[in-house]
Design a protein that fits this description.
InterPro entries: Aldolase_TIM (IPR013785), GlpP (IPR006699). Helix content is about 40%, strand content about 25%. It is α/β, with parallel strands linked by helices and about 180 residues long. It has one domain: Aldolase class I (TIM Barrel).
Length: about 180
């Protein structure tokens, strides 16, 4: 399994993509919001610069996050990993040997318990906990699943990154480019 650590850049805009492409420190990039028609060329450019590409399948406009959509990302686009809130999408990613990251929104205790059951069935490679500002919950998810946790959502400062890491996160995702080189 690919090891994810530190700050992982989450790309929303073209200027951010260019910044990560030029970075020597960043090995991974996450595409959060894009159009399906742009994804193949973006991934090709990233691969030319030896970057690993993770796609948030639920947020790509024009992509249906089902078996056929995943087949396109896996066979035609050749992404390195998939992020999704959907257990079936994570299962497909794992089946095809891609890095699989289950995104978990912690809204309340019921949502947390429900999602932990799904995660324990699907067994993703990583869990991304949102919002990533709750170190106690990050540790609880890690301890309940024995899986590495990535903190994401509302990570705005160096202190937020440090608190998430101190809470047990292996990595942090953020679209704040000022934090990418921490």
């Amino acid at each position: 399994m690919e090891e994810l650590t530190g700050v992982l850049p989450a790309i929303k805009h073209e200027k951010d993509f260019e910044k990560v492409l030029r970075s020597k420190k960043q090995k991974h990039m996450i595409f959060l919001e894009s159009r399906l028609s742009q994804i193949p060329s973006l991934v090709r450019y990233a691969k030319k610069e030896n970057k690993k590409v993770l796609i948030h399948a639920d947020l790509i406009q024009g992509l249906k996050a089902d078996e056929f959509g995943m087949e396109f990302l896996i066979r035609d686009v050749k992404v390195d990993g998939i992020i999704s809130t959907r257990g079936n999408v994570i299962g497909l990613a794992k089946k095809h040997g891609l890095l699989a990251i289950q995104r978990l929104f912690v809204l309340d205790s019921h949502a947390l318990e429900h999602n932990l059951k799904i995660i324990n069935n699907v067994k993703p490679d990583y869990i991304e906990v949102l919002p990533g500002l709750i170190p106690k919950i990050i540790r609880e998810v890690r301890d309940s699943t024995n899986l590495p946790v990535i903190a994401g959502g509302l990570i705005r400062t160096e202190e937020d990154v440090q608190n998430a890491m101190d809470g047990g996160a292996e990595a942090v995702t953020t679209s704040n480019s000022k934090l990418w080189n921490l």
